[in-house]
Structures are given as C-alpha cells and as structure tokens.
C-alpha cells in the first residue's frame, strides 16, 4: 500500500511540475524560445501574490487572480521590448538574454525581499485531506493537480479551437507563410508570452502554498520544468503533463528509497527517457 | 610579421604577471588567481559556445569533477595535490565521454538543458560520497598542500609564510594554465581542424560538402575543454582548500560568470575572454560594497550586448577599426606570377 501511496503522491507532485512547465512548453513550442528566466518569473509571481495579499488582506487565492493581468502585461512587454529583438536562426542570443534576465530578476528580488523564505498563507485548507479508499490525499495537492489538468486542457482548447490558436500553430510551423496569411509573428509571440506568464502565476500560487520560497528558488524549479517539457516532446501540452508526472513519480519513488535521492531520481528518469527517445514521448513539431 | 605579434604580446604579459607574487601584495595575488582561473574557464567555454556551437550551461560539472578528483587523490590516495590536478582533469575528460553520448543526441537548446541536468546529477551523486564529506564537504589537509614541491624554494624567493607560498604557487600555475590555454586555442583555431570548426559554425552545409565532419570535431572540442575545465577546477580548490558539492558544482560561480565574461568580451573571438575578464574584475572591484548590485549590472550588460553588439567589446572594436591584432584567419596566398610565354 505504501507504494501505491508513493505513486499517487508522485503524480500529484508531477501536476505541480507540469504547471511550472506548461507556460514554458507553450513558448518553446511556438517560437523555439528557451526561456531560462521562467523559473525566476514564477518566483516573481509568487512575490507579487504575496505583496497583493499583504496590501489588501485578501486570501492568496484571490490575490493570485488580481496578479494575473499585470503578469500578462509583463509577459507581453518582455516579448515586445526584448525577446522579439533577439529571436532568430541563432539560438545563442535568446538563451543569453533570458539567462541575463534570470540573474537580474533573482538579485533584484534578493535586494527587495532579502533571502528570508516566505510562504503563501492559504488558510485551514492546507492541512485538510480526503480519504480515498486506502490512500489519504491532501486537498491542496489534489487542487494543484486538478489545476494542472485544467490548464493543459484550457491551453489545448485555445491551441486547437480558436483563431488565436490557429495563429499560434501556423507561426510555429512556418512563420514566413503565416506572415503571408496576415499573421504578425511578433504580436502572436507577445500574446503567447503573456499567456505563459498567466500560467506561471497560477504555478506561483501553488508553489508558494505548498512550500517555502525565496529569491533563489527559481532555477531548480526551472530545471524540473524543462525536463518535463523535453520528456513530453516539443509542442505537446499533454506530453508536458505526462513529462511532469514522470519527473514527479520518479522523485517520489527516489525519496521513498532514500530522502537524499529524490532530485537525483528525477534527473535519472529524464536521462533514461531521452536515451530511449531523444525527441521526447509525444513530439508534435519538428525543431 | 602578422603572426609574430600575438605570441610576443603574450610573452610580455606573462613575464610581467609572473613577477607579481614577488612585488605585489598577497591579497592581489589571490584576486588575480581567481581572475586567471575565470579566464581559463572562459577560454574553454568560448571554445565550446563561440566556435563549436555547443552552448553548455553545465560546465560546472567538469569543474566539480576535477576538484573532487584532486581531493580524492590527496585524501584517499595520499598523493601530491599537483598530481591530483592531472587525475582530476583526466577524470573530467573521462566523464565527458558518456556525457557527450547523451547530450549530443539533443540539439540546440535541448543541449543546454541536458548539460545542466548532467551537472546537477554529478553534484547530487558526489554529495553521496561519504569519504569526502558527503553533502557538507570536507577540507584539504593543510600538510599535503604545504608539502607541495617547490614550496620551500618559493618561500626563500618571496619571503613570508607557507600559506603565502602556496598562494604564489597556485597563482603561477593558473598563469601558466591561462597562457597555455591561450596559445593552444590560437594554434588549434588556425590549424586545419580549427578552420574546419569555424567553417561548420559559419555554414554547416558548405563545410560538410568539403569533407568536414562536424560531429567528430565538436566531440573533440567537448573532450578537450572538459580536460581544461577539470584541471582548472582542481587548481581552484587547491587554493580554496575546502570542497562541498554546492561550491564545486556552482552554476553561478563556474558557468554564469563565465558566460557573462565571454559575452561581454566578445563571443567567438579569441581575445574576447581576456577583455571580458578584465571588465568583470573591474566591475567586481568597483561594486564590491554594494552586494548583489554587480550581478544585476552584469546581467544588464549581458542583455545589452546581445541587443546592440552581438560580438561583444572585442568584436565591436575590430569591426569599428578594421584592426585585428589576433587574426584567426590566414592571409590569402600571394598570387603566383604567371610565367611569360
């Protein structure tokens, strides 16, 4: 029974990683942009939620809703003012710009909020759990997992059922032809990054509710998120969810064997999947 | 003439810098030791990213392996730290073979993430090595370091304590390593293989069509830079004297700084890392009192360079002035006069 419990905890954890990864996957799939600052942007979102919550006295769940529009605007601005200028054949400039951005965000947060770790106070729901047959499930992990599925479902609907999604796919497949059809790739990219940061804010809420965070939390989370994206395959959002669950389950199993092996087990699962399938489990687009 | 100037400049600079421990303060020697080590790491990273197109975010893996290899030789094998350096470098190179097998399957941006994940695996795995202190790390025995060959002779030369002599010795080794790296990079880049590498970077299809094998060349660069990075890692930790997984495999110290140094100085140019490390040292000294501000400044400069001057300070300089004292290309052969018939 303990194994079943571990497996389910791992799946729930995977939901959180999938939330970290979903925005990344969207941006990566549409414009081949590897955003090394995504982890730090999530942490920035968590501080924004904390700030709004403290200023207004609202529950973090509501504060997160208020944080969504400014985060969308930030993503839009970031793409328009900065990232659109460096996207191109050469993958080095965007990588280095987002790397610089990561260092800037991390250290600005450090100056503003110090290295003390914070947590988002969700309230009594944090400690509640449901007994489902033989296993006990925390309400928060369950909500996190549900949100991850909802976000991936929503993004997929957006991607395959709307005009915006058609523009996303067209630009992803062939930006030049998309331009001939009246799509402006730069605008499409700006909206995509805006949406990615909306998803990042949702991820920030659950990150802050689940565990402590501090300004240096970003990069490690980013690495798990990237592993989830790569395991899932380029441009496949359901693949990203599956990738997150692979990492989550591997980490939970590793931790059950020896607490020091948790992270290591996740990385090893990543290496193992890529050795077998270098393009990930469900690749949609060619890179 | 064109090819004699760079070696002459290098020799003059090395001679001047070599005199420092005799005439300069110990704090300056320690500072410049760090600068020289960062230069070695930057030269290696520049070779990978600037010339071979392999953007690695995981070079700290090889720094850490080199350092742990050296520590294992000294603590477990009772060897001399200097011999340990070599073992550390070889261990890093040995590790780079399986790493290359794994990461070379990933292209472009995937490669960057793959190397990063590998470095984190190495960090976590070595944290399990209980004989070397596990997750909290351990210190290098003082006696082993102070018994390194030449320490007594150096004390006689510069005066001062044994610790100062150790600083001088590691400084000279770092200087020698940096000079050797510069000379080797220059020779390599002007060789047949180096030209092939630059051809692959500039136009992969054309390069293949004239018989250049990109994968073989890139794998060779990956292996050699792992060796250089590993030796440098060992040397760094002889001087630091204490190791822990987080310090030895630090993404910030051994890869992030190095990336900024190369980008600011000029990626894909040989003097770029030298210029970059000088700017880095200047910034660090200037902003020393303001905590993390210099990291923010560094990040902003890096972003600005990518936006406005992709080839960095050195690349901008050679383009503006048309002057390139360290040419990597060969002069076109003189036209052979056709015999009158």
UniProtKB/TrEMBL annotation, chain A:
PANTHER family: AMINO ACID ABC TRANSPORTER PERMEASE PROTEIN, BRANCHED-CHAIN AMINO ACID TRANSPORT SYSTEM PERMEASE PROTEIN LIVH. It comes from the Bacteria. GO terms for biological process: amino acid transport. Belongs to the binding-protein-dependent transport system permease family. LivHM subfamily. It comes from Paracoccus haematequi. This is High-affinity branched-chain amino acid transport system permease protein LivH. The chain crosses the membrane at residues 6-29, 41-58, 64-83, 95-115, 135-159, 188-209, 229-249, 261-278. It is a multi-pass membrane protein. One of its GO terms (cellular component) is plasma membrane. GO terms for molecular function: transmembrane transporter activity. The gene is livH_2. Keywords: Amino-acid transport, Cell membrane, Membrane, Transmembrane, Transmembrane helix, Transport. Its main location: membrane. It is found in: Cell membrane. It holds the Pfam family BPD_transp_2.
UniProtKB/TrEMBL annotation, chain B:
It is found in: Cell membrane. Keywords: Cell membrane, Membrane, Transmembrane, Transmembrane helix. It holds the Pfam family BPD_transp_2. The chain crosses the membrane at residues 34-54, 61-79, 85-104, 169-189, 219-238, 250-270, 290-309. GO terms for cellular component: plasma membrane. One of its GO terms (molecular function) is branched-chain amino acid transmembrane transporter activity. It is a multi-pass membrane protein. InterPro entries: ABC_transp_permease, LivM-like. This is Leucine/isoleucine/valine transporter permease subunit. It comes from Paracoccus haematequi.
């Amino acid at each position: 029974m303990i194994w079943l419990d571990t497996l389910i905890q791992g799946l729930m954890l995977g939901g959180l990683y999938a939330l970290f990864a979903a925005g990344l996957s969207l941006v990566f799939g549409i414009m081949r942009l590897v955003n090394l600052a995504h982890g730090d942007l999530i942490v920035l979102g968590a501080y924004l939620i904390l700030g709004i919550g403290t200023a207004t006295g609202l529950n973090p769940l509501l504060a997160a809703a208020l944080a969504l529009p400014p985060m969308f605007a930030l993503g839009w601005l970031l793409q328009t003012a900065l990232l659109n200028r460096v996207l191109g054949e050469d993958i080095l400039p965007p990588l280095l710009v987002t790397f610089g951005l990561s260092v800037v965000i991390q250290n600005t947060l450090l100056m503003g909020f110090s290295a003390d770790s914070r947590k988002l106070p969700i309230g009594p729901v944090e400690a509640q759990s449901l007994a489902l047959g033989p296993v006990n499930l925390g309400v928060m992990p369950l909500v996190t997992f549900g949100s991850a599925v909802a976000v991936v479902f929503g993004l997929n609907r957006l991607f395959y059922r709307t005009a915006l999604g058609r523009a996303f796919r067209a630009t992803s497949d062939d930006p030049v032809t998309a331009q001939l059809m009246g799509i402006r790739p730069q605008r499409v990219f700006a909206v995509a990054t805006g949406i990615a940061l909306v998803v990042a804010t949702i991820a920030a809420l659950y990150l802050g509710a689940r565990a402590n965070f501090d300004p240096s939390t970003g990069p490690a989370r980013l690495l798990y998120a990237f592993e989830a994206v790569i395991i899932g395959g380029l441009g496949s959002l359901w693949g990203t969810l599956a990738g997150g669950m692979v990492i989550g389950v591997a980490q939970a199993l590793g931790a059950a064997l020896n607490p020091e092996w948790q992270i290591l087990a996740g990385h090893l699962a990543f290496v193992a999947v890529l050795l077998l399938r270098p393009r990930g489990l469900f690749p949609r687009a060619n890179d | 003439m064109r090819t004699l100037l760079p070696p002459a400049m290098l020799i003059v600079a090395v001679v001047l810098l070599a005199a420092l421990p005799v005439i300069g303060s110990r704090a300056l020697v320690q500072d410049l030791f760090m600068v020289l080590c960062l230069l070695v790491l930057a030269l290696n990273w520049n070779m990978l990213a600037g010339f071979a197109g392999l953007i690695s975010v995981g070079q700290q893996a090889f720094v850490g392996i080199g350092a742990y290899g050296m520590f294992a030789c000294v603590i477990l094998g009772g060897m001399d730290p200097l011999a340990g350096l070599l073992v550390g470098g070889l261990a890093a190179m040995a590790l780079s073979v399986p790493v290359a097998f794994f990461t070379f399957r990933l292209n472009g941006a995937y490669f960057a993430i793959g190397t990063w994940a590998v470095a984190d695996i190495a960090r976590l795995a070595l944290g399990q090595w209980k004989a070397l202190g596990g997750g909290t790390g351990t210190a290098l025995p003082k006696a082993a370091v102070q018994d390194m060959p030449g320490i007594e002779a150096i004390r006689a030369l510069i005066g001062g304590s044994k610790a100062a002599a150790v600083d001088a010795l590691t400084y000279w080794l770092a200087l020698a390593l940096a000079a050797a790296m510069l000379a080797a990079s220059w020779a390599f880049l002007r060789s047949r293989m180096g030209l092939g590498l630059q051809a692959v970077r500039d136009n992969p299809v054309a390069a293949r069509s004239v018989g250049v094998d990109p994968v073989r060349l890139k794998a060779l660069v990956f292996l050699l830079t792992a060796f250089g990075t590993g030796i440098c890692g060992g040397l760094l930790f002889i001087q630091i004297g204490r190791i822990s997984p987080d310090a030895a495999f630090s993404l910030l110290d051994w890869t992030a700084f190095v990336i900024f140094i190369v980008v600011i100085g000029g990626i894909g140019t040989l003097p770029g890392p030298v210029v970059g490390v000088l700017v880095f040292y200047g910034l660090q000294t200037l902003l020393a009192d303001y905590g993390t501000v210099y990291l923010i400044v560094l990040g902003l400069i890096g972003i600005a360079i990518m936006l406005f001057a992709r080839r960095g300070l050195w690349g901008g300089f050679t383009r503006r002035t048309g002057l390139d004292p360290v040419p990597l290309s060969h002069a076109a052969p003189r036209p052979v006069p056709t015999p009158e018939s």
